[in-house]
Amino acid sequence: MGPGPLIASRPAAPCRHGTLGRMALPFYIPSPPVNGFHLGPAYIHFYGLMYVVGITLAILITQRRWKAVGGDPGLVGDVALWAVPAGIVGGRIYFDLTTPKYIPHHWYGVFAVWDGGLGIWGGIALAAVVGSWRVRRSGASVTLFMNAVAPALLVAQAVGRVGNYFNQELFGGPTTLPWALHIAPGFRPAGYTQYQTFHPTFLYEFIFDLLWAAVLVWLGHHRSIKPPGLFALYVAGYSGFRIFEESLRVDPSEHFLGLRLNMYVASVLTVAGIVWFIYAQRHGRPASELRARPLDSEDADSASPAGDPAEPGPAGPGPAESTPAGSSEAARATDTA
Q1: pTM for the model
Q2: Where are the domains of the chain?
Q3: For the chain, what is the mean pLDDT?
Q4: 3-class DSSP state for residue 38?
Q5: 286 in Cβ contact with 278 (< 8 Å)
């Protein structure tokens, strides 16, 4: 199949809404002709490429936001070096446990992330644990870092959803809307092979992720949100949207009492995120009281503004300069969040 236009004309398709399915609507989003490209002997999957682009953007955005609160941008790179692999592992474990029907039938199927399949909640959970360990080890505030990274995660997830388009996955039920997505017959789930166009739920999430990221950035600039309030809103907002998204999806999934497993996970995390946000605003500490740099770095900066040791004057060495008494003690009294 050769490359086609972004919006193509639609043939008549059967639909669950009676005669509506036999009506030809003028537009739909075509399915992609390929899911990757050759680069020498290697085959580059667009799914993986989108994740690389998304992670890169997340690192750059977090560096900018972390620097704005006085943090060392280099810490972001160190955290990413550990958290990104942890996120991939956690995401794949979650996928394998919750959607076993999608695991490729090879001995390495449980590891085949290039075929799609990273559960976002498993990825974020393990990445957050490992990332928090690295931030705490550096002496900086974990909650302040979480506020900095929250919008960046949404941008990364949005870019990653573009990869779902190339894999022809993460779509919803049949629809005849003008922005419906055409799915090739080989990718249609059982029971839906007679339909041609479906809800592009990955596109809905792409739009939501970028809008919610913008909301979090706005709140961070215009409201006094105590850390990790922005991260809690990220969890609550994204999970709340997933309740809507899961109600549309038709791809194979584990079910419990007639509902998709992810529906329950999304519902629990939505409530947990809201409770976490309320608790943080009532009992948390303002961002101004938290450290973005370790104590040793702050003491070194305050001891010598020019960054060089004091030199003796022409009349001989004078008394050693020191910081005012009590300032060191006050700095040490500020504990890490």
Answers
A1: 0.79
A2: 45-72+137-289
A3: 82
A4: strand
A5: no
